[in-house]
Write a structure and sequence with these properties.
Number of domains: 2
Radius of gyration: 21 Å
CATH class of the largest domain: Alpha Beta
CATH topology of the largest domain: Rossmann fold
CATH architecture of the largest domain: 3-Layer(aba) Sandwich
Number of strands: 9
Strand order of the largest sheet: 5-4-3-6-7-9-8
Helix content: 25-40%
Strand content: 15-25%
Largest sheet: 7 strands, mixed
Structural class: alpha/beta
Length: about 270
C-alpha cells in the first residue's frame, strides 16, 4: 500500500485528514512539519511494519484517544510539550488565558499557576518573561513529574510543588493564574473525555467547586494590584465574575477565545494587606 492509499483508508474509517497525516508521519519517524513530504511521496509504497504501526495508531485515534497522547506531545504557545495520560491535553483556548496574563506582568512579577498539569501555563509565562519568578503547584504527583520533565527539556526555571490550590502557602503574588477543573459532575461531555484524567476535569454539581475555593483563597495571597485569572466553562463567565466581585476583586472582566466564547475571567486586588 502506498502513502496516498494509506491516508485514504484512514479517512474512510472516520479519521480527519490532518490526524491521519500526523499519525502516518509519527509511524514513519518523521516530524509533524513534514506534511509536504507526504504529498511529494504519495505514490511511495509503505513497508509492512510501517503500515502496521500506522494502522495501530489509527485504531487508537478511532476510539477517541487524543492525538497528543498517541504521539506523546502537544504544541502550546510555541512550546513543544511532552504529554501523556497523567495530564490533560493543553487546549488552544487556554492560550487566551496566557495572553491576558502576559498583559499584566513584567519581568519583576511573582506568579503562581494553580493546578499546573503538564506545566503549560507556567512554562509559557516563564518563556515569555524569563526574569519573572514563576511557581506552579498541583496535587497530583504524577502530573508534577510531567511538568518537571517539560521544564527540564525546555530549560525553563519554574519552581514546582505539591499542593491543593493555595493551601499552606504564605506567599503573595502579582498574578495567580489557573485552569482548574470546571466541568459539572454529570456533564454529558465527560463521555468524550474518557481518556483524560477526570480528576482534572470534574468540579462538583455545577462545575464551580474548585473555582469557588481559589477565589476565596486568592485575596489573602495577592499583592495590592495583583490579578487573579481563571479559565472556565463556556457558560460560566457570569457566575465566575459574580464570585470575583463578591470576594472583593475589582476591574472584573472576561476574555473571549478565538471562537468568541467568554473563556477566562479575572479581577484585581486593590486593597491593602
Amino acid at each position: 500500500m502506498n502513502v496516498a492509499a494509506a491516508l485514504a483508508a484512514a479517512q474512510s474509517h472516520g479519521l480527519e485528514r490532518l490526524d491521519a497525516q500526523l499519525l502516518l508521519l509519527h509511524a514513519l519517524g518523521r516530524a509533524d512539519s513534514d506534511r509536504a513530504w507526504l504529498l511529494a511521496h504519495d505514490a511511495d509504497r509503505l513497508a509492512a511494519d510501517a503500515y502496521a504501526a500506522f494502522a495501530a495508531l489509527c485504531a487508537r485515534r478511532a476510539t477517541g484517544e487524543p492525538l497528543a497522547y498517541i504521539v506523546g506531545r502537544k504544541e502550546f504557545f510555541g512550546l513543544d510539550l511532552r504529554i501523556d495520560r497523567r495530564v490533560l491535553v493543553p487546549r488552544p483556548e487556554t492560550e487566551t488565558l496566557v495572553e491576558w496574563a502576559l498583559e499584566t506582568i513584567d519581568e519583576r512579577a511573582h506568579v503562581i499557576d494553580l493546578g499546573t498539569g503538564s506545566g503549560a501555563i507556567a512554562l509559557a509565562l516563564k518563556h515569555a518573561r524569563p526574569q519573572a519568578r514563576v511557581e506552579a503547584v498541583d496535587q497530583s504527583a504524577a502530573a508534577l513529574d510531567v511538568a518537571r520533565e517539560n521544564a527540564r527539556r525546555l530549560s525553563l526555571d519554574v519552581r514546582f510543588a505539591a499542593a491543593s490550590w493555595l493551601a499552606n502557602n504564605d506567599e503573595r503574588y502579582d498574578l495567580i493564574v489557573s485552569n482548574p477543573p470546571y466541568v459539572a459532575d454529570g456533564d454529558p461531555h465527560l463521555a468524550a473525555l474518557q481518556h483524560e484524567p477526570l480528576g482534572a476535569l470534574q468540579s462538583g454539581p455545577d462545575g464551580l467547586r474548585d473555582i469557588r475555593t481559589i477565589v476565596a483563597q486568592a485575596p489573602h495571597h495577592l499583592q495590592r494590584g495583583g490579578w487573579l485569572m481563571l479559565e472556565h466553562g463556556w457558560d460560566q463567565a457570569e457566575a465566575v465574575r459574580g464570585l470575583l466581585r463578591a470576594a472583593g476583586l475589582r476591574e472584573v472582566a472576561s476574555r473571549r477565545d478565538l471562537a468568541g466564547i467568554e473563556r477566562c475571567s479575572g479581577g484585581r486586588w486593590l486593597e491593602l494587606g
